Amino acid sequence: MTELERQGAQARAAARVLATASTVQKNQALEAIALALETCWDDVLAANAADMAAARAAGMRPAMLDRLLLDEGRIRGVAAGVRQVMALEDPVGRMVEMTTRPNGLQIGKKTVPLGVIGMIYEARPNVTVDAAVLCLKAGNAVILRGGKEAFATNNALTALMRGAIARAGLPEDAISLVQDTSRASATELMGLRGYLDVLIPRGGAGLIRSVVENARVPVIETGAGVCHVYVERSADLDMAARIIENAKCSRPSVCNAAETLLVDRDAAAAFLPMAQARLEPWHCRLRGCPETCAILPTAEPADESDWDTEYGDYILSIKVVSGMDEALEHIAAHSTGHSEAIVTSDYFQAQRFLNEVDAAAVYVNASTRFTDGGEFGEGAEIGIATQKLHARGPMGLRQLTSTKYVIYGSGQVR
Amino acid sequence: MTELERQGAQARAAARVLATASTVQKNQALEAIALALETCWDDVLAANAADMAAARAAGMRPAMLDRLLLDEGRIRGVAAGVRQVMALEDPVGRMVEMTTRPNGLQIGKKTVPLGVIGMIYEARPNVTVDAAVLCLKAGNAVILRGGKEAFATNNALTALMRGAIARAGLPEDAISLVQDTSRASATELMGLRGYLDVLIPRGGAGLIRSVVENARVPVIETGAGVCHVYVERSADLDMAARIIENAKCSRPSVCNAAETLLVDRDAAAAFLPMAQARLEPWHCRLRGCPETCAILPTAEPADESDWDTEYGDYILSIKVVSGMDEALEHIAAHSTGHSEAIVTSDYFQAQRFLNEVDAAAVYVNASTRFTDGGEFGEGAEIGIATQKLHARGPMGLRQLTSTKYVIYGSGQVR
């Protein structure tokens, strides 16, 4: 048995206990975690200072350093997030359907925890707590595998959470951190069949590719977002300009930010200068098709790879299209299935876009930036699923459960 | 582009059309398929005769030959199955939730097809039609990959269905059969990323293992069933004997048949002879733990591997346990998460078993044999899912859909 298999077996044992833990017990554990974060942060801050020093010495970029940093304010924010999860409804134990069959069998479908969840993620240490408490509230054990730059911080946070869970009378193995930060340990976690019920990777394209290659357990893919805003000819152009500004520039690093603007040829000459005026204050670079560049002389020419690039930055690709057919073709070819928006005043065009675009979230006359657990009313989220099985779109507590059929009989045989 | 990638691209194009096809259109295609089966079966029977001749020459066992055989009566049965699927409610296009957010966004969650489904299955040619029409009714394209012994039959059935779909005005590429029956083509299908939204393997342990190793697309595992019946000390022993007889012997080859009987020590001396008397007329062999063999001298001794074996035959393993704790431990260690049953008269024991056993279907006082789409009221099924993501238990039409969020805005930005 490898170290990770041992950890898997411990998590599985903890999951069996958690599966029948009451909401009160789980909330007591969450309360203990929040309280520990608010009162015992010295070890966490010391560990984070060590991670920060090592990262600085290794020449980490300032934006990444900022993602790694924890301070009192951020820890309080994380604790507040834990209390928000406490306040959410327990997703476990709801009988979502119950029927009595002609033979008298009463067949119910009940929500149950998934079991043991593996999380692989990158730099931000707050994910360590956010993900762990969501899993815990839904009755799951979790095995965390964060970025190696944040290992000391993650380890301190995990120790703090394990202590709190034990004080609340639940098994501390409900939350554990993979201790080996080598690439091999990530690969082993992806193949931990028999211990993991699901693996949720949260990170960039490289991580997702590695998971696709190496996973031997069910995976929920999250996060890749090449999102489009399509300005149809009947659009209110002022509204369209506000929407593309918001979709691109309000937070370009996140997955629900837009990467590509599609605009109908009939509206291009009027709209593109308006859009440019909105984007200019953000110093947003534009990469356009030839028609775009003819209208906006300062735009750079886009090449084919631009249509498949998640910039995560103040860069927008722009393509002029002949109409709905070409827009739908472009989106079908280049969308990652995350969030897609049309701006239009035409009822039939709106309906066609909603019906034909294949993505987790399809918008009419709103920014793609709303694809988010909080905005959708799910409470906290563990990621945005971009595949079609089990969960699609923001994954809240409900998506961290499975179901089982419970059947009450009185001696029926078939 | 390989041949299979070309097939994948054609299926994807067909799926885009199917996604917006009306229920009427899809039912017309199903009606055309049923009619073709009922009236144009000559090619199918000729192809099946060729498959049967080749299989006989290769020395196929009689039981397998029987699974491969199609005759008029069986084809009529398959056609009747198609009409049953026609009669089921269309699972696509239901708005399962819709809320208006404080900012005025109206966010709905709508059922949509999964897209392109890959099916890998073994000998029975009726699966070719059963699976294809379920996929079609739920708006999905399907790429079928059946067993090579049934290739000619499957090819004739697929040609018949494609012709019928085209006559009904839908794209014939909605249904296609992998033409290469080598193992390499199965492996390639498992890795057909970008074309398949989900792969559903239906077959024995070897197929499932191969899928786990090779799949690069989301998979729904089906079918493996090491199911237990636990006779608790308070059980009505007559009822328990009827249930174990039914669970083991009514159809031992299927996945919801029981493989292991667990019996409380307090009830063993009274119950085991009763069970044996029920099983004897079926010539059911018994493999028992030492205590079982002491009570039933004709039972063979079981070894450790018996507890993990899906016999698929008239063989039952039997273990005497000290009570609920040991029964739950045994099930947790050896269950494949399919169907588990307790026979008991004790309310608290029943509740504990329902709450703590982790399986797709958990029964009190009924046979495990009821785990089935028809018995559960789902109509037809494409398999029994034994994993926890997306679908668990009998997979009917509803489980062949995903959801998408559709968002009606009026210019909202975040």
Question: In words, what does this structure look like?
Answer:
2 copies of one chain form a homodimer. Chain A is of the alpha/beta class and 414 residues long. Chain A has 2 domains: 3-220 and 395-408, Aldehyde Dehydrogenase, Chain A, domain 1 (3-Layer(aba) Sandwich); 227-370, Aldehyde Dehydrogenase, Chain A, domain 2. Chain A contains 14 helices and 16 strands. In chain A, the strands form 4 sheets. A 7-stranded parallel β-sheet of chain A has the order 10-9-11-8-7-12-13. In chain A, helix 10 (237-249) packs across helix 11. The longest helix of chain A has 17 residues, at 3-19. Chain A is globular. Chain A starts with a helix and ends with a strand. In chain A, 54% of the residues are buried. The model of chain A has no long low-confidence stretch (mean pLDDT 95). Chains A and B meet through helix 10, helix 14, strand 13 and strand 16 of A and helix 10, helix 14, strand 13 and strand 16 of B. Strand 16 (401-412) of chain A pairs parallel with strand 13 (361-366) of chain B.
